[in-house]
């Protein structure tokens, strides 16, 4: 499993770029960029090198952590996956490229593109003198970038499709899939809207022959659609809340990161949605934990997505082996059928 914090070489490159940067200026810029994102303005507020750096300092730790969590899920289901080439779609400061390079020693060819020139310049600066120094990063719109990109074993679109309209998103899905020799990972914010974009893309590419590797243990319709959390499950929230497939990755916040975000807590919880699609089926059956399991002295209750739909696994403490395994499970973990048989 790759840890969620930025790798030392990336942290060092960001520190080097930040020499002489006014922290309060960076914090102000990051706040404007974040407000623009929340207002649906995408990366439009990132216009200069300093904006790009402020964005990277504020957001790269969280997007890196979300991509890394998705890659860990991929590797659990397909431990044999050893891509040689990567395409980072809408790469921004190169976050997903860094995360994939950490996860896969096998990667040696790195391609990327983005329509934002300031983020491209920053990505190339951060990559210089590192394992990513050979990164080929073009500047341009997704339609052109994807058309000109070389076919790759692995393609990632991290926090990108939310900046596109429905037609652009559909075109990106088709083109990205056409350029992918094996695996495509798409990550979005873990909001209902972000999850919906993931589900639309998932449905579209399954119709073109893709198979889901993670998080879903099946290629069927998402069983959470139209579902609500039951009254018992949501007792702590005092109400029945709509449910959607998303996950949470906790990441540490450095002092500088706290200052930049005007935050007090030494950690941050990034909510994200993702899908990993492959040209081949997952080799094993598994179930995915859809929320933090409830552990009591008498039992563990875990909400699972399984190949046969939603299920609540309730494991009594007297069932020692299974209880010990289930109490260690966290939100987003996979539990393989082979393990269940051993535990039963
Ligand atoms: C939120 S940033 C994410 C950047 C990076 N993938 C990451 O995870 O940190 C979204 C990126 O998508 C790029 N982008 C949005 N629409 C695009 C398009 N139509 N063509 C190319 N790049 C696009 C933006 O310029 C921006 O760099």
List the helices and strands and how they pair.
Layout: H1 8-18, H2 23-38, H3 49-77, E1 85-89, H4 95-103, E2 109-114, H5 117-127, E3 136-139, H6 142-148, E4 152-158, H7 166-179, E5 180-189, H8 192-206, E6 211-214, E7 247-252, H9 255-261, E8 267-278, E9 286-289, E10 294-295, E11 299-306, E12 309-316, H10 320-327, E13 334-336, H11 337-343
Parallel strand pairs: 1-2, 1-4, 2-3, 4-5
Antiparallel strand pairs: 5-8, 6-8, 7-8, 9-11, 9-13, 10-11, 11-12
Bound molecules: S-adenosylmethionine (SAM).
Fold and architecture overview:
With 344 residues, the chain is α/β, with parallel strands linked by helices. It folds into 2 domains: 8-278, Vaccinia Virus protein VP39 (Rossmann fold); 286-343, no CATH class. It has helices at 8-18, 23-38, 49-77, 95-103, 117-127, 142-148, 166-179, 192-206, 255-261, 320-327, 337-343; strands at 85-89, 109-114, 136-139, 152-158, 180-189, 211-214, 247-252, 267-278, 286-289, 294-295, 299-306, 309-316, 334-336. Strands 1, 2, 3, 4, 5, 6, 7 and 8 form an 8-stranded mixed beta sheet that branches. Strands 9, 10, 11, 12 and 13 form a 5-stranded antiparallel beta sheet that branches. The longest helix is centred in the N-terminal third of the chain and has 29 residues, at 49-77. The relative contact order is 0.12. Mean pLDDT is 92; it is low at 229-240. Residues 42-43, 63, 90-93, 95-96, 114-116, 119, 141-142, 145, 158-160, 163-164, 168 line the site of S-adenosylmethionine.
